[in-house]
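Section 4.2 – Deliverable D4.2 (structural model, holo form)

The reporting period included a commitment to supply a predicted holo structure for the target in complex with 4GN. Inputs used:
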Amino acid sequence: MRFDVLTLFPDMFRHVLGESITGRAQEKGLLVINPIDIRDFTSNKHRKVDDYPFGGGKGMVMTAQPIYDAYMSIVKELDYKPKLIYMSPQGRPLTQKLAIELKEEKHLILLCGHYEGIDERVIEEIVDMEVSIGDYVLTGGELPAMVLIDCISRLVPGVLPSEEAYSEESHFNGLLEYPQYTRPYEFNGKKVPDVLLSGHHANINKWRREQSLKRTLQKRPDLVEGNKELQEEIKKLKLY
Ligand code: 4GN
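Output (structure tokens):
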């Protein structure tokens, strides 16, 4: 899968996504993450990318021209139109469901804003979807873009060390993940639950399912609220 990122800080992407699993996936050719410096597309000799807002007000606004030209430099090479996503607090909230939808795209372009925002006309011209990683404001769209890339990338076949890893966990099935334990058997006087050492896989799966249900009910009751089947299952198991 290919990600192009329109940003004023391309090194942030190399430094963060070049490490660990996303780094290895790039080396393997499973992911192409291509940060593009918007400043390289300025047509003024000072490489200026922002200007004062019409109508007045605090801060600066990113100008349309370099963003548009950077975008055109990508799409002019292609015989298809990749989806362009603008990282914005006004966007569709990022959820596991949205990540699963977006992993089907072969190519995404992410646009990262700074300052007080981007000239609305270039947004109207090139943006297909706005995505938000949560109800808070950051100094730039780079961290949100990296969150989105990471979240989608781990769903791309071959990126995670073991394929089954992602199908089991939090939010994939709408439940929180059960607790995990590793060696030693005893830590600060606390032992690993016996069922996990029993070798009885049906019992282990049953215990894990119950733990997931209990945790979700306790920590994220909102996830249970809209789900009749989960409520039934919780009732049957008397997990209240
Ligand atoms: C996205 C962008 C938060 C998010 C951002 C978010 C940069 N902050 N919740 N900051 O996903 C004005 C112009 C703020 C760009 C934007």
